[in-house]
Design a protein that fits this description.
alpha/beta, single chain, 7-stranded parallel β-sheet, about 250 residues
Length: about 250
Amino acid sequence: MEFDFTGQVIIVTGAGDGIGRAAALDFARSGARLVVCLDVKGAAETAAAIAEEGGNALAQVMDVRDVAGWTALVQRLVADCGGIDVLVNNAGVAIAGDTAVDMDEPGWDRIMDINAKGVWLGMKAVLPTMINNKRGKICNVASTAAHIGLRNAAAYCASKGAVLALTRQAGVQYAPLNIQINSVSPGTTMTGIQKNITDEQRAAFLPLTPIGRFAASEEIASVILFLCSEGSSFMTGADVSVDGGMVAL
């Protein structure tokens, strides 16, 4: 699928691996003026991969919980590029043993702060320049965990449910300003986060996926690019499940 992001400035969080890396590469291949690869690790590697293909990228080694970092990044992009066209909030974490009883408070806070608060902080930092420029696209990466109760994923489900609710509210709030905010809910995808679950847990998800396999990161990235393209101009506050049919069961 071909998209045209010629001249656009894109921020992708969690760009060091998996879905974020695939999306960052695809944005660059689609003509983006600059792709900001934001992650706590792997950002430089993704930016280098983009540069090797002839694209323009900036490696931003940063935690999405870093308010000062967000402020400085946006100020730099506004000064250098005139604004930000697209924000993809993809960064997220999961922790093993995530039940309402077994999860400890630091673990709960870590998941909620990165998966949910980090999305809000990115939006809070980027939206003012989008409002000023009277255009913008935001895609938040939720999960099937926002739609169904996954075992051993209490905080994770809660955090991704918060992403969905924030996407709906902000999508409505900023629609009159020519800013579309949507989300994508991936099913089980072969990304780095899968390293935190066992082979037995992974195998248990397969019968729940009617397509009969797990997603590749590139398959989720293509939907992210669609939601950030002109093709989604009449969508806002919406969520697109890319889960091999899991939620439809």
